Every structure is written in structure tokens, then in C-alpha cells.
Amino acid sequence: MAARIILNPTAGNGKAQKLFELIQAHLPNDVEVVRTTGPGHATELARQVADQEDLTVVSLGGDGTHHEVINGLMPEGKTIFAVLPAGTGNDFVRTLGYPKSPRAMLDVALYGAERRIDVGRVNDEYFLTVSGVGFDAEVAGWVNQHEKKGNGTWIFLRGILRHLVHFQAEQMTIHVDGAFRSEPTFLLAAGNSPYYAGGMKICPEADPGDGLFHVVWVKDLSRLGVLPLLTRVFRGTHVQHPQVKTFQTEQLTVEGPPNMLVHADGEIVGHLPVTMTVIPAAIRVRTGRS
């Protein structure tokens, strides 16, 4: 077996199943396809083969599926990891230079160049893109419950508008390199890669190969100030706003109200307090860039 494809047939409201049907005829004989049957199953299927150094594990689904798979492959990190994107946001693949056509994507997933990337960890949960707390985590929780009612960025925008009415900034304390600071906080995002929520460039300087998080800390905002700032997130220019602080670090701890949700790769993974850590060059990935 040269590769195992872990297929989440329900991802992207059926997009994953449709993509699989397009590539099925082109699969080599030494590629095994296994299907998930519910939440957490992709992690189990990945963990079964996590110690096989010559194997490529391909996650066919959305960022939530990729999140489950990477949690099955870590902490060993021995296999090669690849994705076939078919979800709501498809943010992780934006860093890998994958082509658009299904056949070309399959070729990259199975035979593309190898690159080592960092993986983030928030407490005991691993992540590929961004972990955050505050407004974006509350939106992520809502999107996870309602994503069957919309696709891509639109479902995230619905969640944003819905939560703007009631969300209040909360006092949070950030610990970095032995120092700490407390501020009323709208959101804090620690990026291993730049994108979340269907193409929002929340951490524009994040690079999954530099061993650091790009942290974006948004202080308290008026409700009238939130939407203009969010429109700038797609270009990454929100970091120029006076209420936004950015820095890079290998590790940070966030404390605050214990009811505050924490997300990683758009999946809710717990509540405050949390410690976020970069694991440098943790796993090999297939990439479309040489």
C-alpha cells in the first residue's frame, strides 16, 4: 500500500463524495480508500497507520476532516500527509499550491513534492491552520452546527452577523516569554498558516515552515467598528488597525473566563485557559510547489 485515502463522504455537504467519484477511476491499485462513519473516525483511521514512514495518508474532506487526520498522525508524524480539499472553508490547502482540477489534485496528493511543515498544538489537540479564542471561536461553534445550510465564506459571514449583536469583549491575559498583559479582547488568533473561515487572511505573516506562530490580538472594538475591520481581513490589512496587536512566538498561554470557547482549524476544542505551542517541522506534506 502506497497511500491510504481517508474519505469523509459527508464533508462539504456532499462535495467530498462527488470529488471521490471524479477521481475514483484514476486511483492506482496500491491506494486504499477507507470511509469515515462519524465524528472522530478519521482520527482512528489515521492512527492505525501513523507509524508507516513510506505511506502517504490523504485526507479527502474539509478542514475539519484534515484536523481529525492530523490528530491521528501526531505525535509520531512519520507518514506523509496530503489533502484532497472538499469542505466548507478549504483553508489549509491554500498554503500548499494545489491545482484546481480533480485529476491534477490527485496527482499532487499522491506524488507531489515533499515539504516539512510545523504543526500547532493547543493543550493536547493538534492543528494545521489557526487556533483562536473570542469572537471567532463563538462563530466557529455556530458554523459547525449550521454548515449544512450554506457553503464557503457565506456561512461564516452569516455566523459573524448573527454574533455581532450580543458578543462582548472579555478580559484576557496573554503570557509570552515570561511576561504577561491583560486587555479586554475581541479575539486572539494564533496562526500556523494565514487563512481561516473560507479565505480570511487572519494571520497574514503566518508561515508553516518558520517554527513560529503569527499571533493577531484584537482588542475591544465598538460594534460599528467590527464590520469595517472584518472586510480588511480578506486582504490581511486589518493588522494595521490601532486596536490590533501582532507578534510572533513559539508558545503562548491565554487565560480568561472559563466559559470562553477555543477553536483549532475551525473545530471547537475546549475552553480557556489554554497553552498554544508550535511543533517545528513536525510532518511531511505533499505540495504542488517545488
UniProtKB/TrEMBL annotation:
SMART domains: DAGKc
GO MF terms held by the record: ATP binding; kinase activity; metal ion binding
Every DAGKc domain range: 1-126
Cellular component terms per the entry's GO annotation: plasma membrane
ATP-binding recorded as keyword: yes
A Pfam family recorded for this sequence: DAGK_cat
UniProt KW ATP-binding keyword: yes
Keywords tagged on the record: ATP-binding, Kinase, Lipid biosynthesis, Lipid metabolism, Magnesium, Metal-binding, Nucleotide-binding, Phospholipid biosynthesis, Phospholipid metabolism, Transferase
GO biological process: phospholipid biosynthetic process
Cofactor: Mg(2+)
Family, as annotated: Belongs to the diacylglycerol/lipid kinase family.
Protein name, UniProt field: Diacylglycerol kinase family lipid kinase
